[in-house]
From TrEMBL, chain A:
<dbReference type="Pfam" id="PF00005">
    <property type="entry name" value="ABC_tran"/>
</dbReference>
<protein>
    <submittedName>
        <fullName>Phospholipid/cholesterol/gamma-HCH transport system ATP-binding protein</fullName>
    </submittedName>
</protein>
<dbReference type="GO" id="GO:0016887">
    <property type="term" value="F:ATP hydrolysis activity"/>
</dbReference>
<keyword id="KW-0547">Nucleotide-binding</keyword>
<feature type="domain" description="ABC transporter">
    <location>
        <begin position="2"/>
        <end position="238"/>
    </location>
</feature>
<dbReference type="InterPro" id="IPR003593">
    <property type="entry name" value="AAA+_ATPase"/>
</dbReference>
<keyword id="KW-0067">ATP-binding</keyword>
<dbReference type="InterPro" id="IPR017871">
    <property type="entry name" value="ABC_transporter-like_CS"/>
</dbReference>
<dbReference type="GO" id="GO:0005524">
    <property type="term" value="F:ATP binding"/>
</dbReference>
UniProtKB/TrEMBL annotation, chain B:
<feature type="transmembrane region" description="Helical">
    <location>
        <begin position="225"/>
        <end position="244"/>
    </location>
</feature>
<feature type="transmembrane region" description="Helical">
    <location>
        <begin position="185"/>
        <end position="205"/>
    </location>
</feature>
<dbReference type="Pfam" id="PF02405">
    <property type="entry name" value="MlaE"/>
</dbReference>
<dbReference type="InterPro" id="IPR030802">
    <property type="entry name" value="Permease_MalE"/>
</dbReference>
<dbReference type="GO" id="GO:0043190">
    <property type="term" value="C:ATP-binding cassette (ABC) transporter complex"/>
</dbReference>
<keyword id="KW-1133">Transmembrane helix</keyword>
<keyword id="KW-0812">Transmembrane</keyword>
<feature type="transmembrane region" description="Helical">
    <location>
        <begin position="83"/>
        <end position="104"/>
    </location>
</feature>
<protein>
    <submittedName>
        <fullName>Phospholipid/cholesterol/gamma-HCH transport system permease protein</fullName>
    </submittedName>
</protein>
Length: 254, 245
């Protein structure tokens, strides 16, 4: 579980996060949604330790980050898996080497044991058979799956995903969403996902934080988000024609 | 103020490069890969340039020696001094700023724009050490490249001078040995080590701290070449003042 309390963050005097409070629950897919510039990525980077909040506390399983010793911070970073928007796979390494990388950096096991784990994870994300290919030789969806495999290979406690299905066709996007949800349950981890995609909200939105202009404007789950009358949320959700039609039908009681 | 900021940022980067170390077994593989990418792959162009530059220096010197009182051995003497003191260490380093420097800036810059550096940081890896330290160590072998450049420069000078009929082989060898001061080699290799460090770190700085996309990676490579050359030239001047004057 990750709890953020009263998080403030400003850049060049401009406040991007204005006191965010939220609990990201363990074993659930926690979604941060909101328009571009609402502060989603900054909040994620604060949780990853890439930015230090100007004010407020981030607690990992009840312990504030500010109270972590250097060794504990190092351990924490080993417990974090991250799926980047573009995959962020290492171009010079094969699929197998990309997934092996975190294990190689942080464990002292023999290569054969490490490879067993790599193959197990690649099989889990349905990528067995692509081990020797380079990132440039596989599709966007496969790259995302490699990125997920790399993120979970060390058995992390926290999984962060920055728009994991951006640039993917709807079918592949759903596959990725479901994969992340299955992994969250299977590994019983705290998963935090940034997304703009309302299909993802529908599929895996178990705990949703809606940010607007650096403020937590709404929170709830996927069932509540499509029923809420809160205008800031409905403006965002029903901005696409498809969801507008769904909303009209809903209001007409169809 | 911008320059001061960049200079400060560069030294902070160096602190990070020698900070928290990457796992030794991983580092070893990275160093060998960098030696291959930075050093071995540059040998061809260095050999080619050195040979022909040596040849041109010999021809130019021979053509300008019109006074019969000046001995022909001066052709070899001039070629040796030019190649050892300046052409091999400095001129080749400027070429390397274009070849190796652009490669370093663009490879680190591409990793920057595709969030690969963020990925390293999130994993708890000191990305500065992981990316730049192996390059610095690999560049410790750079003096071997310069030694090869010196040798081939003189071979080029010999070939051009003797085959061109400007000077006989015995006179050339005699000129080559005239007034040889071994300290000139020390001077050349001292500055080569400094240039090696500059070649590894200045382009890395431009790649690591660049912002933007693919276009900016290209711009960073160009800026990196300009600044690496400037720093090499200024360092050359300072070292020459300190060691030779």
């Amino acid at each position: 579980m990750i709890e953020v309390k009263n998080i403030h963050k400003a850049f060049d005097g401009e406040e991007v996060l204005k006191g965010i409070d939220f609990v990201f629950e363990r074993g659930k897919t926690n979604l941060i949604i909101g328009q571009s510039g609402s502060g989603k990525s900054v909040l994620l980077k604060c949780m990853l330790g890439l930015f230090l909040p100007d004010q407020g506390v981030i607690e990992y399983d009840g312990k504030p980050y500010t109270e972590f010793s250097e060794d504990e911070k190092k351990d924490l970073s080993k417990q974090i898996g991250m799926v980047f928007q573009g995959g962020a796979l290492f171009d010079s390494m094969t699929v197998e080497e990309n997934v092996l990388f975190p294990l190689r950096m942080f464990t002292k096991q023999s290569r054969s044991k490490l490879m067993t784990r790599v193959n197990e994870v690649l099989k889990r994300v349905n990528l067995d058979g692509s081990e020797k290919k380079y990132p440039s030789e596989i599709s966007g969806g496969m790259q995302k799956r490699v990125s997920i495999a790399r993120a979970i290979v060390n058995r992390p406690k926290y999984l962060f995903c920055d728009e994991p299905n951006s640039g993917l066709d709807p079918k592949t996007a759903t596959v990725i969403d479901n994969l992340i949800q299955e992994i969250t349950r299977e590994y019983d981890i705290t998963t935090v996902i940034i997304t703009h995609d309302m299909n993802s909200v529908l599929e895996i939105g178990e705990n949703i934080a809606f940010l607007k202009d650096g403020v937590l404007a709404w929170k709830g789950d996927k069932d509540q988000v499509f029923k809420t009358e809160d205008e800031t949320v409905t403006d965002f959700i029903y901005s696409s024609n498809l969801f507008k039609k769904v909303r009209t039908a809903q209001l007409k009681g169809l | 103020m911008n320059y001061l900021h960049s200079i400060g940022e560069y030294f902070l980067m160096l602190k990070g490069v020698f900070g928290r170390m990457t796992k030794r077994s991983v580092l070893k593989d990275l160093i060998f890969k960098e030696i291959d990418d930075l050093i071995i792959s540059s040998l061809g162009i260095v050999a080619f340039l050195s040979f022909f530059i040596g040849g041109v220096v010999a021809i130019q010197t021979a053509l300008n020696l019109t006074n019969p009182l000046i001995p022909k051995t001066l052709v070899a003497y001039a070629a040796r001094q030019s190649v050892i003191l300046e052409f091999a260490p400095t001129f080749i380093s400027i070429i390397m700023a274009g070849k190796v420097g652009s490669y370093i800036t663009s490879s680190i810059g591409s990793m920057n724009v595709t969030e690969q550096i963020d990925a390293l940081e999130v994993m708890g890896i000191n990305s500065l050490n992981y990316l730049i330290f192996p390059k610095v160590i690999a560049m410790l072998t750079y003096p071997f490249v310069i030694a090869i450049a010196m040798f081939l420069g003189i071979v080029g000078a010999y070939t051009a001078a003797v085959l061109g009929g400007f000077v006989g082989p015995d006179a050339f060898i005699e000129g080559l040995q005239d007034d040889f001061d071994p300290f000139h080699l020390t001077y050349a290799f001292v500055k080569t080590f400094l240039f090696a460090f500059i070649l590894a770190t200045v382009p890395a700085y431009h790649g690591y701290y660049m912002k933007g996309g693919a276009l900016e990676v290209g711009q960073a490579s160009t800026t990196s070449f300009v600044w690496t050359s400037v720093v090499i030239i200024v360092t050359n001047y300072i070292v020459t003042q300190l060691l030779l004057s």
